[in-house]
Amino acid sequence: YYIATERTDLIKNGAFGNSIVSSSALKKIAAKYEIPFSETLTGFKWLAKIKNLAFGYEEAIGYCVDAKTVNDKDGLSTALVLAECAAMLKQSGRNFFEYLDEIWLEIGFHRTESISIRVANIAETQETLHKIRTNPPATIAGYGIIKLDDLLTPTDGLLPTNGLRLWLADNIRIIIRPSGTEPKLKCYIESVRPTGSEIEKSAAEEIVLKLKNELGALLA
Hints:
By secondary structure, the protein is an alpha+beta fold. It is about 35% helix and about 25% strand. The protein has seven helices and ten strands. The strands form two sheets. Strands 5-10-9-8-7-6 form a six-stranded antiparallel sheet. A four-stranded mixed sheet has the order 2-1-3-4. A hairpin with a 3-residue loop joins strand 8 and strand 9 (about 170-180). It is globular. The relative contact order is 0.13.
């Protein structure tokens, strides 16, 4: 948001991008400020391929703000931009928490959470995903499933990958995929609320907790 609104020199006809398991907040910021946006598979090996990448990030705490110098996640350059942002906020008597609340007013409050379900062997992850593909539940934690995207046969330009993306009522998104390195199923939850008010934040926390509990049972 800081780059999109205050450091437009860092964009210079560039693009924003994040992995599919990351928050949808960046896509909304890009749309609001008319910045090209791309969504990729998980991993900076994919994000680094975005043409003219001005800012990229993924859920596993990786950020790129200077792809021309370091075309990968890089904490040093990111820390410098973050320090600049902190200095700007201090001059105006604000802090990061207040700044985030301003952002939530514009694009909605985004609460994300990931959980990992360890299994005895990798074959179990395939069996679980097959079961959900062929017989998806009608609801999860009381929230109806509106749409299910099978990421093995994507329709939005992504390369095929073994995973499922579920859209639930009340602006909830869930992505389920096997770990690429361990016998685990990984699940990524996002709850989007209209604002960052305390009431809406509490509602998002409650939603995430309910989903974590039921998904843990569903995927175990």
